[in-house]
Design brief:
alpha+beta
């Protein structure tokens, strides 16, 4: 799984209810054809990444087809989640 395109946007909390900083991140993925997630339409990982005090985490994510925006019912494996979290932290650091 390789990220070929990324987009990040800081989410605003106009009411001040949520703690920490929240980011909406879209990652376009390059997948091998034999990967169960592979789609000819492309695959995007949409996620919410939170940094609160000295902790950061992915609080929500969904896979969708890039062209159709159709939901794909898959979950990240533990090692993939660690890799994506590190990538997200690098995006936030550059943001």
């Amino acid at each position: 799984m390789n990220v070929i395109e990324s987009k990040i946007e800081k989410l605003q909390d106009p009411f001040g209810i949520l703690t920490g900083d929240r980011y909406e991140i879209f990652l376009t993925l390059d997948l091998d054809e034999d990967d169960e997630l592979f789609s000819e339409n492309g695959v995007v990982l949409k996620l919410i990444y939170v940094i609160d005090e000295n902790q950061s985490k992915i609080v929500q994510y969904d896979f969708t087809e890039k062209i159709t925006d159709q939901y794909l019912d898959f979950a990240l494996e533990e090692d993939e989640e660690i890799e994506i979290k590190q990538f997200c932290q690098q995006l936030v650091d550059r943001y």
